[in-house]
């Protein structure tokens, strides 16, 4: 193992603590290699920790993600830095030096015990992004129920400096004047696992995604469907009505050159079908419609999943949605051009509409580290068929959706492949008598 706490030396730096980064880190750590995870948010877990259930198995998303988050946090070979961003990665001979900015949490991580007394004392209300803005938290808060670390974070934009949190904190953990810090990490390899963002709600102006309250994002629908979501059940945001009719508009941000997203985002058809199935369970009398040009259900068992949804009564309308408008009683009108009925145009009304947004790369690290990026913005993988995790730079690897849109099944498979590629790379670099595996080549002594 290659860890020196004072100088922060690790075998691998994993940038991004979503499901792909966590899986790569866990696999490497289980091989005895030391890993630093740098995560920009206040908790690890990425998008998956916010999902309700996951296709194709309909397993509870947090039941899969939370144990992996906890395993990474408790692994003796893994060190996690949250609220941390890499400002540069520079090659030094065979190795790399990463400069990492630790953003202020305004809470001392070593002192905070996650008791939330600060949160209860604080009066400043802030829209909760984790819940799609449908509920609120205080200016100082623990990010969400199963966040890791379970440590409070303060939002300096919303704090009015009243000092109530400072007074109630039993461990004197609140530090209102905390400043950003820079640390240096020396590593022998790097894995980019920065994941994705959804395409913007307002990308297609004719859909009025940011203007109509009952037109929501798919991540917001995930929270409405989650057991501990903002309302505890599915209600529409504008007026709290239980929706009788819900529609999904496919390819709302993908397969469109004019939006700069010519590719298929690969997961939107499947997550829409999943959400439709979950909705028909929680709202058995609601009409559920999916407007789609074609359904792309490419994975193992996915076609059956699609047919099951059809059999459950979910309506699939083959058409292209031209406009979405708000009409009376905060309902939503969808204008659809049918594909299979000689271009017939129809206007249909729904209580709630979900835009099935596509995937964009979450980070462009080109100006911060040696890495190639393709025209679509995702990390370049020069030989995807034979080396799916290698980038243009020796010693720098990629894992999960940072390399392109993919589902969890593929992200986890690729994360394992990235860990294997890193370990082979490090093993080849080792002089005889590899320290990482503690086995002397040619010797019988382990
Ligand atoms: C609405 C919706 C529903 C979905 N449902 C399913 C489903 O049911 N089944 C399924 O298989 N797939 C589903 N998916 C796809 C699934 O979310 C992804 O496959 C998976 O989350 C990809 O994991 P990842 O680790 O690659 O990326 P992410 O989850 O995006 O994780 C990346 C992490 O990197 C961090 N990060 C980003 N930039 C930086 C930076 N510069 N420095 C440090 N950290 C950084 C981020 O904060 C994040 O924690 C769904 C997607 C959406 C949008
Ligand atoms: S900052 Fe203090 S009051 Fe807030 S959760 Fe941490 S220990 Fe509790
Ligand atoms: S100082 Fe800021 S975070 Fe603390 S209780 Fe007052 S408003 Fe809330």
* Poorly predicted ranges: 2-6, 438-446
**Fraction of residues in H or I helices:** 10-25%
Mean pLDDT: 94
Overall tally of structural domains: 3
Class computed from helices, strands and strand pairing: alpha/beta
Task: For this entry, give a set of tags.
446 residues, alpha/beta, FAD/NAD(P)-binding domain, 3 domains, seven-stranded mixed sheet, disordered N terminus, disordered C terminus, binds flavin-adenine dinucleotide, binds iron/sulfur cluster
Describe the structure.
The protein has three domains: 9-103 and 180-195 and 362-429, FAD/NAD(P)-binding domain, CATH 3.50.50; 118-168, no CATH class; 200-359, 3-Layer(bba) Sandwich (FAD/NAD(P)-binding domain), CATH 3.50.50. Helices cover 20% and strands 24% of the residues. The protein has helices spanning 19-30, 61-74, 117-121, 164-168, 218-225, 268-282, 302-311, 408-429; strands spanning 9-15, 35-38, 53-54, 59-60, 78-81, 84-92, 95-102, 125-127, 136-138, 140-141, 153-154, 181-192, 196-198, 215-216, 245-249, 287-292, 315-326, 332-338, 345-350, 352-355, 359-361, 396-398. Strands 1, 2, 5, 6, 7, 12 and 22 form a seven-stranded mixed sheet that branches. The radius of gyration is 24 Å and the shape is globular. Residues 2-6 and 438-446 have low confidence and may be disordered.
